[in-house]
Amino acid sequence: MPRSGGLRTALHALGAGYLAAGHEPILIVPGAGYADEMTSQGRVITLPGPVVPGTGGYRVILARRRLQKLLEDLAPDRLEVSDRFTLRWTGRWAREHGIPAVMVSHESLAGLLSFAGPLGNPWADRLNSRTLRAYDKIVCTTGWAAGEFRRIGADNIAQVPLGVDLELFDPSRYSDDLRARYAEPHQVLLVHCGRLSQEKRPERSVEALVALRRRGVDAVLVVVGDGPLRARLQELARGHTVHFVEFVAERTAVASLLATADVVIAPGPIETFGLAALEALACGTPVVVDAASALPEVVGAAGVAVTNDFAAGVLQVLERPAPARRAQARRRAERFSWPAAVAGFLAVHQSLVLSGAVP
């Protein structure tokens, strides 16, 4: 959980929003050991959970009986689940106890299983059908994310975009000192920020840097994040101007780096929303994204969507005058706020009351 990036950000923002709206949110997360504490996002209960191999530190809750006992003791009047893999069973538990349940789809199951080859889609459809039957409502953050459910005839989908902290992520975070640390005044500063794992395709950012330099563009790349591909990426980047920065827990530091960059590259092909890309826009920095993902929905004309040539996407961004492209990025981000996202999620829960899902 401490290194879960966008998911951790979303859960914290939603919890804080629910608390501010007068609710009593209780967040149950996996961790190294048990903990129970009050935080700015409400009560957070940590249950011991193992690290999933090859994920760069992600943990899951596998102690089903312990979690079930905890849920029974807490007796919630609503259930919102953000782990569609190991916790799908909680939907059935909620239904048996007369508790309305919502599943938030933060990942594309069809996308993840596509790495397994042509058998991925049938398995994704089968598992998604089970999720649809188990929960009263499925919340998707983009139309792209909802697509894998709508193609199997889902009629209990709600589309609610996530948000961004527009005060924390702001163009004023630009840092001359940070710029000088990584690049010369005349160089193009590129940033990749995200988990270094297969589904994120981080090698594309390194390849874009290499291609740009071959085209005569004096560019440098900063890669921020940890993950199982880190060593492989470092080998790929050997001999090139690529700086690797480990996971940055301090959000202001991330905001400063995003605001200082000329262009951010978000190459993941199965992103369902892309909070890091939105945070870059809020900092006034355009983003080059994969056209096959949900990110074109998020960045709009403030970014560039490409199929494979991310270097060409960077060049397309750089053709625009810097003041204009940075102002456009910020305006786009201002369409997404956490208060609006919280209101949307709460409206989904309220819709269950109006539909009679609540006993």
TrEMBL record:
SUPFAM superfamilies recorded: UDP-Glycosyltransferase/glycogen phosphorylase (SSF53756)
Coiled coil feature spans: none
Cleaved signal peptide residues: none
A Pfam family hit: Glyco_transf_4
Swiss-Prot/TrEMBL keywords: Glycosyltransferase, Transferase
Domain Glycosyl transferase family: 186-332
EC number(s) reported in the record: 2.4.-.-
GO MF entries: glycosyltransferase activity
InterPro entries assigned to the protein according to its UniProt record, in alphabetical order: Glyco_trans_1, Glyco_trans_4-like_N, Glycosyltransferase_grp1
Residues of the Glycosyltransferase subfamily 4-like N-terminal domain: 5-167
Name of this protein: Glycosyltransferase
